[in-house]
Amino acid sequence: MPRGLRSQLLLRVLLLLLLLLPLAGALELHDPAGPAEAAEEPGSGPAWPSFPFRDLRKWARAAGALSRRYWALFCCRVWPETCSLDKEAPAGAQGWSLPLLGQQYLDILTTWYCSFRDCCDHGDCRVSNNFTGLQSDLSVRLHGQHLARELVLTTVRSYLELPRPDKALALSFHGWSGTGKNFVARLLAENLYRDGLRSDCVKVFITMMHFPHPKYVDLYKEQLTEQVRKTQEHCHQTLFIFDEAEKLHPGLLEALGPHLERQVLENHKAESPRTIFLFLSNLGGNVINEVVLSLLKAGWSREDITMEHLESGLQAEIVASTAAWTWVWDRRLQDSP
Predict the structure, then answer these.
(1) Among 242, 269, 313, 322, which is most buried by a count of CB atoms within 10 Å?
(2) 19 lies in some domain
(3) Does residue 256 share a domain with residue 231?
């Protein structure tokens, strides 16, 4: 049995098991015999359906109609684009009403399904762009990195709120291991995407794991270019994280060039993709530490240190590394607020 059909069958069975429990309260069957024949005898208990075949078949038809109605409601919740439910039809015309217990079961099942599948009313539910949460995380959970706290939120939010960006956003985090580069990258992914680093729209590359052999750089370039293209086709907003970026082959950085150059937008109605390239690098760690230490010895407060104090020395070390990294640094400066 195909997987999709098997999933639908499983959901139908779950609906039937869960939603037929309130069947007695849900069904408002009208007895064609009329009120006189349906009247209870004095001293008798509540009227329950008898077990002749005719009554059993009537209840089975009603149960089937109720199950189909619940299934239609469930489909309209999780797949609104394929909803065929006649919302204008009154519930009474179907011979039943939606009880509170049945509504609760429907809510529980919908929540369970949407916990591992995509279902939302509009837009791409994989993308959350929770800037309030990002601001809170950077303020509360990130310590000792006031520059990152100020610049990351401003730069990312400004870019993602552009109506039609004409290029990708390039960000680079520099410093020794343990200074919080990966932590900030994770906070960024968690607040921009529902599934964080596990999102289909987020790709993480570790240089020595994904691109370990320089002799295969041409193959890596093809694979990287294809991965970026497929991810952009699948998601209108993407995040690519390159860890140990200082070890990237210059050819791989050049492969990202077309995305970091400004493009002429020909179709003014089409939605422009939003792509963020995040480079995590140990490059410049020594310079940053030396500058910060000298300023602290001179009596400066850590919070008084600005990007202007760091950029000149950091840029000098980057220029001395490779021409490709100089090119990336120049694109990063163009994206600074």
Answers:
(1) 242
(2) yes
(3) yes
CA dist 301 to 143, 284, 293, 298, Å?
Answer: 15, 21, 11, 9
Q: Which two tokens stand for residue 115?
A: 């916990």
Residue 70 near residue 4, CB atoms below 8 Å: no
Are residues 214 and 305 located together in one domain of the fold? Answer: yes
Higher pLDDT, 165 or 84: 165
Model confidence over 212-240: pLDDT tens digits? 999 999 999 999 999 999 999 989 999 99
Q: Do 108 and 140 belong together in one domain?
A: no
pTM of the full structure: 0.64
169: helix, strand or coil: strand
DSSP state of 93: G
Question: Closest Cα to residue 322, out of 277, 282, 283, 279?
Answer: 283
Q: Which domain holds residue 220?
A: 131-263+271-335
Is 183's pLDDT higher than 70?
yes
Distance between CA atoms of 117 and 115, rounded to whole angstroms? 6
Residues 23 and 63 in one domain: yes
Q: Are residues 96 and 144 in the same domain?
A: no
Shared domain check, 77 and 15: yes
Greatest Cα pair distance in the chain? 101
pLDDT of residue 208: 93
Angstrom distance (rounded) from CA 104 to CA 113: 14
Tokens 């601001």 found at: 135
Same domain, 77 and 158: no
Count how many domains the chain has: 2
- pLDDT tens, position by position, 144-161: 888 888 899 999 999 999
Query: Any idea what DSSP says for residue 4?
Result: H
Q: Indicate if 209 and 239 belong to the same structural domain.
A: yes
Q: Positive or negative CA dihedral for 179, 183, 187, 193?
A: positive
